[in-house]
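**Protein of interest**
===
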Amino acid sequence: MRRRRSLARPWAAGALAAGILVLPLTTPTAPEAAATPASATAASATVFFHTKTKNWTDHYLHYAPDGGSWTTAPGTRMTAACTDWVKLTVDLGSAAGLKATFNDGKGVWDNNGGQNYALGTGNITVKDGVVAHSDPCAGSEGPGTEATVYYSTQTLGWTTANLHYQPAGGSWTTAPGVGMEAACAGWWKRTVGLGSATSLKAAFNNGNGIWDNNNGSDYTLKSGTSTVKNNTVTANAKDPCAAEEPDTEAPTVPTGVRASATDTSVVLSWNPATDDTGVTKYQVTRTGGTKGSTVTDVTSTVHSDTGLEEDTTYTYTVKALDATGNASAASTPASATTGKKPPTPPTGAPLGTDPRKDPIYFVMTARFNDGDSSNNRGGNQHAKSGNAANDDPMFRGDFKGLVERLDYIKALGFSAVWITPVVLNRSDYDYHGYHGYDFYKVDARLESAGATYQDLINAAHAKGMKIYQDVVYNHSSRWGAKGLFTPTVYGVRDNQWSWFYDEKNAGFEYDGLTVETKSGKSYYNGDLWSTAEPTGNTCLNWGKTTGAKSPEGYTIYNCQWPNPTSGMFPKAYYHNCWIGNWEGEDSRSCWLHDDLADFDTESAPVQNYLIGAYDKYIDMGVDGFRVDTAVHIPRVTWNRHFLPAIQERVTRKFGAAAAKNFFVFGEVAAFVNDKWNRGSVNHSAQFYTWKERKEYSADDTKAALEQYDYENGQGTGNQPTSNNAFLNGNSYHAPDHSKFSGMNIIDMRMHMNFGDAYNAFGNGKDSDDSVNDATYNVVYVDSHDYGPNKSNERYTGGTDAWAENMSLMWTFRGIPTLYYGSEIEFQKGRKIDCGPTCPLATTGRAYYGDHLAGSVTASGFGTVASASGKVATTLDQPLVKHLQRLNQIRRAVPALQTGQYSTEGISGGMAFKRRYTDGGTDSFALVAVTDGATYTGIPNGTYRDAVTGDTRTVSDGRLTVGAPGKGNLRVYVLNGPGKIGTDGPYLK
């Protein structure tokens, strides 16, 4: 972001033959594998549907076997199975699954939020929108000894639990085992018969492939009552639910339900309900239209309802539910009337692949390449900044220009493009995108006919390239956020100020692009001011003179300019203070700068506004979010609201696999060389990669303070650690992401130390044990904000140093990222940003399109089919050649993309080994950057260098590599392909 300062990867899952997923845990023991059922020859499905929270008198299954026809609505009546469950067995013939919805036979439907349920075969449970696999009514109790097992899922987030067990001397149940019943909040229970046995082996799972098998050892439980919580078994235990009064108290009724329609979509939001044990979800009931009522379960306090009928009034009510299914009464209804269906843009969907495979090219869209001069805009600082004299409007590049040069980026070898924020901005100098005004609208200065944001996403995906959208949750423009709150300032069109305050035009709506006829400006401000005190004004001393004068000698009035301490911004939406300590609690709850109005992100209306806005871009198919100023929002707020909302939306729209690889990486700006930012864990990048480890107040504001005090009180020595980035000797191991927050990070420590590649390497290694998984770190040398060591200039270390940095970034752990133009050392040594006090052409944010003139077609990632004009010259530069080959090598060696690493048994400056193992893939590489190295204790075999093709046979676990020279490297791959690409200026 532009600063002037004194800023769900859910658990990974790999399927085994028995349907057992072992992350974060280890491979099941041999009896587990022996319990694998044979493939069924006759396809059928027994569908169990949970009834407790529906309050329906009848239950119908309306379904269609895969490839077949739907039953006639309302479908087939389901029969009682056991308490709170009904069931129906469906003959699928040759089909491998079915699509399904449920209803009460009277027009109220549960159709999975409009997506329908996709079900497989065997026993399937559908409980409050969650699909799992077990028989919740299975009778496993038998004669003889019994064991009553309680299992805690309080730290796991499971919505169902199965017990898979083996009585001593007996056989294992068929995976996934028998369904457990909810006993009390966070606990599941099952009593099983052991016959003559007095103990059992046990493992637990969530019915969807996530297992707890005691890290591969299974649990040994005795007869009688046992509890299992956080891998700890307590024999002869007390009933963990016995001391609790039955939870019969329903949550409070949701209040403040608001519905607003845009085209044929409705955004519904409401204030959080409260409950003695905690609200777990909400049920939204919609009535209206010709398709009957629907009930949708959501876990946030905002719901986007899309694809509705035109010109139709829809009414919504909301119920709150707790963990035991107690439901509040329905809220007061809220209604909205849809309009006309907009032209249907081409749909998009994220590519959904592992983000570590995709090097990132970062562009400031407005400064990259101009494809449509008609949307160029200079703003009110056009002349003052000096841009007018250079015929260089700040809004110059656009999506059309980016689409036209995707092949240039692909020819460099990049398969992901990080773009600056796309939402409508409103500020004096807002081309960079970080002054959001209407978060629900794409800035018109970036779009063109045939080159909308959706067109860009689709064009990139067609080339196998991802789009990462820069997003801002922390602040809006100084003019607030349209649809949430926009302040009105005092203004008067007198002989001093009439030049500044545009005449009001009630029929004009600011969009940044359209020129208002009276003022002749696209940056019209007539809607922002008032001479008369507006209704509900909270600004102090409205319109009274301050006694100060402007630089021109004009009288200054109170409330003439937005700021946090005047009372102009309501506390319900914005914080009302300035930051005093950048490493203090106030850095998370006060304004950064006067043109960045700080959201109260602990406020439910703000949370609803932002979640609803970014749902829109998720739905368009973006592949991930780069999160601006993440450190200025408490981690507990990210973990409670924003990160789960992202995962939920991607999962609902595109499925769990896409959600797993939807890449979220945060800017936690720690501009120091410390492992922990000046000793404050709350202000350190790695801190944001972890889930919370204790419960806090239900009130988000209180929780933020409690978390800050608790975690800083724990200190840096008592923080979670991880070995997810490290090899175990020479072996790759399954990473444990069970405590992952959902947010990855920009590697600020390497960034700060990239003045020298050796320092970056050493500092990066030193921090990796405190990051949940450093193989996902985004690594860059410089950016639109800073160079190494908090330099205000673009990196100017020289071409050799750039080549060395790149060689390290493209082979070490993490995702290599390059700021636009660095491939030709564009604007090296120039001040990155000086606001409107100097022309953009003299800064690190200069326009790049002049270097891209001509035409280019990529034949692959890192290869050029054809190029002509200026862009051909650009592609012929030495660092470009270096980048292309680095990308070719990285793509050919899986260990360099997703592998763990180690420096154990290795001598050398920047030398390491990396390995990635998955199924039939086993990639092991030895890397030496610049200097020579000796590797000991490595696997024997044939190693081939990807740079030179040199082949070595290792028979004694030892390999020595000579120094390749600055910027050069050696990558010896066990059973590797040999030389990749052709020699260039550095790799040879």
Observations:
- The chain has 15 helices and 54 strands.
